Structure formats: C-alpha cells, structure tokens
C-alpha cells in the first residue's frame, strides 16, 4: 500500500515538474518566436495584428534594417571588442586565479577581499571619474576606452569563479610537474590549463554576452556612429524608426541573434563549466 502511494506521489511530482518546465520554456520562447515571425511581416500587418503568422512572408525587413541600421559596422565593432576583451580577461584571470589559489605570497588574502568588494560595487558609481580619466588621456570615443573598461569590469567575478575551480585541482599535480622540471608558468600551461578548459570556455561565453548586451558604458564613451556597438545601435535605430514596427522587430532579431545562437551551440559546455566549479578534488 505504501509502495503504491509513493509511486503515485512520484508520478504526480514528475507531472508537475514537467508541467512547470514546459510552461517556463513556453513563457520564454513564445515571445521570441513571435518577434521572429513579425520580422517577416509588413508594418501594416504588425500594427493591425501584432500576434500571428505572416500573411505574406518577406525578407525586405531584414535587408533594409541591416543596411539602414548600419549593423554590419556594429557587428564588427562588437565582435572585435568582445574578442580582445575575452583574450585579456582570460589571460589576467587565468594567471591571477592560479596565483591566488595555488601560491603562497604576502597579500594573498587582500586580493581575495579586493575582488569580493569589486563585485559589490555597481558600475555607475565610478562612470563619471572613469570618463574624465579617459578624456584626459584622449581615449574617449575610441575602441580602447571600452576595451579597458570591459576588461576591468569583467575581471573580478570571473577571477573568483576561476579561483574556485582551480582550488579543486589537487596541488599534487603541479608538484609532480615541478619534479619533472617545470616552473610555475609551465605547470600552469601544461597541467592546470588543460584541466580548466571548460571553465575558461564558460568565462569566454560570459564575457561575450556581457560585452554584447552592455549599453551604459558604450553609450557614454562612444559618440561616433562608426564605433557604436550593437546595443547602442539598436537603441538609436528604434528611436529613429519608432513608427515602423516591422523594422523594430527585425532590429530586435538582428541584435539578439548571436546570443541565441551562442546559447544553442554552447549551452551544454556552459553548464558543464559552471557545475564543474563546484566539484572539489
């Protein structure tokens, strides 16, 4: 009798779990699908009936929005900026997290506390002094202003994230490499780095998403149209073409497409990297 009850409870729990998961997936996916469908409709259709399938499918919105919105330049700016920031963040956090987690040196606890404090401070608190500092050295309205800011703001959280992962790698592996003649740098490159590849990929994804979606800093430091990133280009485009709903839906699709593609291809690797950080060796 008890066994039957437990089986019944298990079935009910499984049903509720899947009902909740499917409901949440639909809640997230249905609006995105409708935005995509509206990008293939005419402006009149979108205004008459915002929800529904296109009566006549058209690709004109995509070609016109891409050209008028200057998205080719914006894509290049965002991808270039994200690529440079990813390389810098991975280099700094990789070496820094290895030092904090594996080496004994004076001030080690200070750096731990420093990065925790850095995470807790919102960026808008120091955006004004940063602007004046960048302006004084002539970096305002250049790609390097954003590269420096994005690198600095992405280091603290990812440093602690990677440090947590590296702390789970047994120190005996590095010690064995030293016995074979490796110094600390070679030990990091040959032993730690291959083991930490999932976490490095996770950090790269996090940094790319942060750079792609960021608006406040890029809108403050960049004024030239030729240097605007995708997020600022989207806001400017929607302001200039607010009367054409079809183009706004299309601009939304163009803006979020790389993030969705990234999630579809690397979601498993991302989850693997995040969960592996909780496993201690």
Query: Rough shape?
Result: globular
Question: What low-confidence regions span 5 or more consecutive residues with pLDDT below 50?
Answer: none
Question: What's the pLDDT, averaged over the residues?
Answer: 86
Count of discrete structural domains = 2
The CATH topology of the largest domain corresponds to MetI-like fold
Which bin fits the share of residues in helices? Answer: over 70%
The count of DSSP E runs of length 2 or more, i.e. the number of strands, is 0
* End-to-end distance: 43 Å
What is the CATH top level name of the largest domain? Mainly Alpha
Order of helices and strands: HHHHHHHHHHHHH
For this entry, give a set of tags.
2 domains, 281 residues, mainly alpha, 13 helices, MetI-like fold
Written description of the protein model:
- The chain is mainly alpha-helical.
- The chain folds into two domains: 2-38; 69-276, MetI-like (MetI-like fold, Orthogonal Bundle).
- Helix content is 78%, strand content 0%.
- The protein contains 13 helices and no strands.
- It has helices at 2-38, 43-48, 60-68, 71-102, 108-120, 127-136, 143-167, 171-179, 184-195, 197-213, 216-221, 230-240, 245-276.
- α4 (71-102) packs across α10, α5 crosses α7 and α12 packs antiparallel against α13 (245-276).
Topology summary:
Layout: H1 2-38, H2 43-48, H3 60-68, H4 71-102, H5 108-120, H6 127-136, H7 143-167, H8 171-179, H9 184-195, H10 197-213, H11 216-221, H12 230-240, H13 245-276
Helix pairs in contact: 1-13, 3-13, 4-7, 4-10, 5-7, 7-10, 8-9, 10-13, 12-13
């Amino acid at each position: 009798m008890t066994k039957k009850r437990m089986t019944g409870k298990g079935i009910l729990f499984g049903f509720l779990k899947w009902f909740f998961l499917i409901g949440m997936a639909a809640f997230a996916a249905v609006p995105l699908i409708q935005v995509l469908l509206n990008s293939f409709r005419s402006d009149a259709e979108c205004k008459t009936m915002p929800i529904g399938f296109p009566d006549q499918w058209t690709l004109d919105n995509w070609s016109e929005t891409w050209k008028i919105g200057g998205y080719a330049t914006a894509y290049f700016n965002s991808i270039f900026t994200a690529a440079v920031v990813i390389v810098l963040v991975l280099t700094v956090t990789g070496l820094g997290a290895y030092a904090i987690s594996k080496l004994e040196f004076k001030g080690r606890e200070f750096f731990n506390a420093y990065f925790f404090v850095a995470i807790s401070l919102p960026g808008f608190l120091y955006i004004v002094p940063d602007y004046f500092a960048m302006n004084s050295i002539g970096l305002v309205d250049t790609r390097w202003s954003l590269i420096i800011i994005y690198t600095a703001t992405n280091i603290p959280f990812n440093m602690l994230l990677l440090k947590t992962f590296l702390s789970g790698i047994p120190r005996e592996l590095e010690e064995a490499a030293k016995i074979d003649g490796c110094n600390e740098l070679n030990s990091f490159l040959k032993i730690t780095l291959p083991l930490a590849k999932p976490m490095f990929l996770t950090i790269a994804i996090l940094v790319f998403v942060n750079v792609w979606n960021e608006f406040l800093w890029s809108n403050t430091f960049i004024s030239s149209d030729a240097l605007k990133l995708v997020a600022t280009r989207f806001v400017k485009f929607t302001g200039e073409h607010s009367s054409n709903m079809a183009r706004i839906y299309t601009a939304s699709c163009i803006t979020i497409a790389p993030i969705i593609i990234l999630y579809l291809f690397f979601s498993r690797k991302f989850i693997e990297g995040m969960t592996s950080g909780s496993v201690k060796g």
